[in-house]
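Sequence, please.
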């Protein structure tokens, strides 16, 4: 992108002023499509997430071009929708996804935010983020709502590199959720629902590649329709702005859910770079705890005893605070 194009990028001030630890990323199929474009697995994933496919009988609605031909090829091969066929299809189209990664910019950005405390949940069945993170040496962990203890730990911020798959993961076909009844036990568990709903009240959700997420019945059951006074909340959604009338209508509709709609551009190709630049803006924000660092931290462990002796000699409660300037030089 040319520098003149970059200057036109607009970032919502209230969003770029957020600390990473105050954000929760909701990752949709658009992220995977940007990272690994053109593979049939992501089209099938999109159909699952939108509720188009069901275990009892696959239906393809609105499928176009090569994807339509690809999926009908599977159906015509067997005409079977039994669980073993279901599992074979998933493994055939989802396996070795890492070989299809062409554009990891968004994944880099997400990991950068996770390093600084941002939480991540996804409606995707793929584990592209976890695979990529492990390649970068991060202890990534895939979680789903069946494991109550893990969900509670994640929701309380104790699993830094955990990714919560609210629909399950393709590696466990029996655990994949295709409708809200699949998580009836979860939605009826007051402890789990309490911590999840608290996230929607206390974190700013940032929706990435989530065109249909708010229509997703599982997401609605977990967050959207169970949290009161949503208009007072501050969540964000990045969307493609193809049509101004549709965009402004979406903005108005989403405000009812406490969600501010932000355009990343008028072309899907702009999405990865916008996320990258947005992440850079957010990570530029100085932590409110940055000035609360005592001298022993900045001087290193070798100076701990010196600092303690100074405390005793001066009879004060604390040594003079040492601040670090932008050029990395410590000053008093």
């Amino acid at each position: 992108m040319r520098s003149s194009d970059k200057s036109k990028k607009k970032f919502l001030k209230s969003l770029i002023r957020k600390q990473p630890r105050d954000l929760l990323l909701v990752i949709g199929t658009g992220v995977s499509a940007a990272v690994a474009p053109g593979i049939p697995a992501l089209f099938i994933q999109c159909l699952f997430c939108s509720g188009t496919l069901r275990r009892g009988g696959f239906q393809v609605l609105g499928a176009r071009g090569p994807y339509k031909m690809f999926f009908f090829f599977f159906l015509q091969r067997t005409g079977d929708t039994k669980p073993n066929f279901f599992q074979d299809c998933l493994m055939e189209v989802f396996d070795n996804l890492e070989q299809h990664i062409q554009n990891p910019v968004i994944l880099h950005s997400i990991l950068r935010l996770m390093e600084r405390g941002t939480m991540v949940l996804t409606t995707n069945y793929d584990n592209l983020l976890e695979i990529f993170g492990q390649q970068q040496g991060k202890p990534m962990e895939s979680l789903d709502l069946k494991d109550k203890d893990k969900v509670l730990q994640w929701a309380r911020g104790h699993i830094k590199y955990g990714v919560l798959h609210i629909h399950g993961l393709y590696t466990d076909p029996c655990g994949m959720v295709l409708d809200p009844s699949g998580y009836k036990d979860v939605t009826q568990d007051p402890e789990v629902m309490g911590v999840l709903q608290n996230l929607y009240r206390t974190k700013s959700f940032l929706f990435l590649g989530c065109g249909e997420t708010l229509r997703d019945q599982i997401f609605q059951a977990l967050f959207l329709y169970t949290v009161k006074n949503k208009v007072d909340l501050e969540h964000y959604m990045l969307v493609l702005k193809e049509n101004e009338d549709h965009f402004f209508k979406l903005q108005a509709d989403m405000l009812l859910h406490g969600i501010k709609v932000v355009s990343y551009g008028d072309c899907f190709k702009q999405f990865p770079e916008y996320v990258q630049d947005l992440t850079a803006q957010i990570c530029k924000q100085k932590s409110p705890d940055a000035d609360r660092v005592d001298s022993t931290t900045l001087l290193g462990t070798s100076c701990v005893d010196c600092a303690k002796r100074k405390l005793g000699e001066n009879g004060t409660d604390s040594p003079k605070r040492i601040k670090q300037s932008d050029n990395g030089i410590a000053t008093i």
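The chain has two domains: 8-36+96-284, 295-331.
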